[in-house]
Amino acid sequence: MLSRLNHVAIAVPDLSAASAHYRDALGANVSAPQDLPEHGVTVVFVELGNTKIELLHPFGERSPIQGFLDKNPGGGMHHVCFEVADIKAARDKLKAEGKRVVGDGEPKIGAHGKPVLFLHPKDFSGTLIELEEV
Ligand code: CO
User: Fold this and answer.
1) What domains does the chain contain, in order, with CATH numbers?
2) 44 CA distance to ligand 1 centroid (A)?
């Protein structure tokens, strides 16, 4: 079902400090910050050869990552995103195995303009998993 690791998302309390860690200390190729108001986040992409890191910071009053940062004020890994060829087929198989999809179960258009779903971390050893159809 899974193919590439599309990205690892890290929620950070200070986006410019986190960008500097990757750009200056680690020598990575780091994008400018992009506000994604419809997702309630500002994101910086760290481009790697085989995948990317997304640094997430809350945007607006009702950001979906604010609660995570309240619990993890220093920041931390928020989710991992795997690519799938057919997101509805993947969802149906996972639901048949008793795995929970976050929200109403319907794929939404994610930060990259492609359909995504999130799987409940309690069903995956404490890790929030995003599936993205590519
Ligand atoms: Co993501």
Assistant:
1) 2-133 (3.10.180.10)
2) 12
Q: How far is the CA of 84 from the centre of ligand 1 (A)?
A: 14
Q: Is the pTM of this model over 0.70?
A: yes
Please report the sign of the dihedral spanned by the C-alpha atoms of residue 81, residue 68, residue 37, residue 48: negative
Active site amino acids: 130
What is the pLDDT, as a whole number, of residue 95? 96
Q: Evaluate whether 2 touches 82 at the Cβ level (below 8 Å).
A: yes
For residue 70, how far is its CA from the centre of ligand 1 (angstroms)?
19
- Given this model, what pLDDT does residue 5 score? 97
Torsion (CA) 42, 55, 70, 102 in degrees, nearest 10: 80
